Amino acid sequence: MKVTGFNHLSIGSRDLDESARFYVEVLGMETIPTYNFGFKTRYLRCGDLQLHLFQLEDSIPTYQHFALDVDDFHAAYEAAKKIGALDYTAFRNPVNELPDGCVQMYLRDPTGNLIEIDWPDVTTLDRSRIPEMKLLSEFATQDAEGLKASLYLDRPHMKPDIASKLAAH
């Protein structure tokens, strides 16, 4: 198993609207659909990657994390589970299936830094090998925006040209 790239960076914010405005107006990022995690969150497009803003009372490293794509989710899960690295606290559950069918797993490094491992397609995984996997909707009801969100900008509805055409209809 090896990492295939960064997926997104998540950072804290004291004022979500102010922070989002800064990244949009100063750096030209674009707000994109965001999942509902039960607290204020905003996703921004940063080239081919994403910046996630969280408005939480957070003492690093409780929620702040970075996310990675891997080439073998099962191997990453089994290695993390074997050493007790799965995180059951930050996002309520260590492995979640998101509404668009991608999967995220949370683990802690030896220092306590939170790492998210992402996988684009739950249908390619053997659920019986990942007993901790639960639907995000079990923890937080998704509104229309949350149902349109994705960790992967290559999804048809997340591409700028297609998204604008869909919005026009």
Describe the 3D structure.
- This protein has 169 residues and is of the alpha/beta class.
- It has a single domain, classed as 2,3-Dihydroxybiphenyl 1,2-Dioxygenase, domain 1 (Roll), CATH 3.10.180.
- It has 4 helices and 9 strands, in the order E-H-E-E-E-E-H-E-E-E-E-H-H.
- A 9-stranded mixed beta sheet has the order 2-3-4-1-5-8-7-6-9.
- Strand 7 and strand 8 form a beta hairpin.
- The protein starts with a strand and ends with a helix.
- The mean pLDDT is 87.
> Tally of extended strands?
9
What assembly state would you assign to the polypeptide chains in this entry? single chain
Helix/strand-derived category reads alpha/beta
Which superfamily, in CATH terms, is the homologous superfamily?
2,3-Dihydroxybiphenyl 1,2-Dioxygenase, domain 1
Output mean pLDDT.
Answer: 87
CATH architecture: Roll
Tertiary shape:
globular
* Cα separation of the termini: 42 Å
CATH class: Alpha Beta
- Radius of gyration, Cα only, in angstroms? 16 Å
Q: Give the count of helical stretches.
A: 4
> Percent of residues in beta strands?
25-35%
Arrangement of strands in the largest sheet? 2-3-4-1-5-8-7-6-9
> In this structure, how is the largest beta sheet organized?
9 strands, mixed
Ranges with pLDDT <50 over ≥5 residues? none
SSE order, as H and E?
EHEEEEHEEEEHH
Share of helical residues? 10-25%
How many domains? The number is 1
CATH topology: 2,3-Dihydroxybiphenyl 1,2-Dioxygenase, domain 1
